[in-house]
Amino acid sequence: MSMPFYVAPEQQMKDKADYARKGIARGRSAVVLQYEGGILLVADNVSRTLHKISELYDRIAFAAVGRYPEFENLRLMGVRFADVRGYQYDRRDVSGRQLANIYAQTLGTVFSESLKPWEVELVVAEVGDTSAEDEIYRITFDGSIVDEQRFVAVGGSAEQVSAALKDRFSPDATLGEALGTATRALARENGGDQGPEAANLEVAVLERKREHRKFRRIRGRRLASLLEEAAGAAGTASGGGTTTEDEADE
Q1: What is the pLDDT, as a whole number, of residue 197?
Q2: Cβ count within 10 A of residue 223
Q3: Which one of 39, 80, 104, 213 has the largest count of C-beta atoms within 10 Å of its C-beta?
Q4: How far apart are CA 145 and CA 106, in angstroms?
């Protein structure tokens, strides 16, 4: 009779962590950062139909990297939680902190109890009435949660992208300037200076001054205009002041 194969719990956890990190590293990164009008979310996404960035609730957005079916399940879970809680209590009772904690608990349980961890990394962002009240949470594959300040990058090249964000970040940047910062940071993923092509950019904002639902996608002509503005460097400030007034091409 053969002896059962034994693996130490510490080795099991290490193997699962390595597996998850490798899976996440195969995908492309995403960044979330504050700008003068709210919070900007940008992802390098070649898909036209599968979103990495989505609205969770009135003031709350979600960005994810890794395996799409897994983070899509998490997104749907968050939307259902927010809808039920907002209906039972009050819409203002739904918070980004609650959703981040639920995601952390779910991912932590999967990581510790399942053979295969989920290959995902998430950001939950909530825009406040002032920039000091903005909240950005990063949740990793093992259920760890970090309260980030000002900006965050997730994905396989997060360290390089974060370093680029740190070099260029300004909380008073216009939307165009912030988008330029984000795309130049994402360029570090490939070790170059050129950011993702416009066709591969998924961009959205949580817009502080917008009534009710703060989330909106930016694409089409609006995105092209902002990218031109970002590339203009010295001309960005003069063109960026009206960025929050225009509607996206929905």
Answers
A1: 80
A2: 19
A3: 39
A4: 12
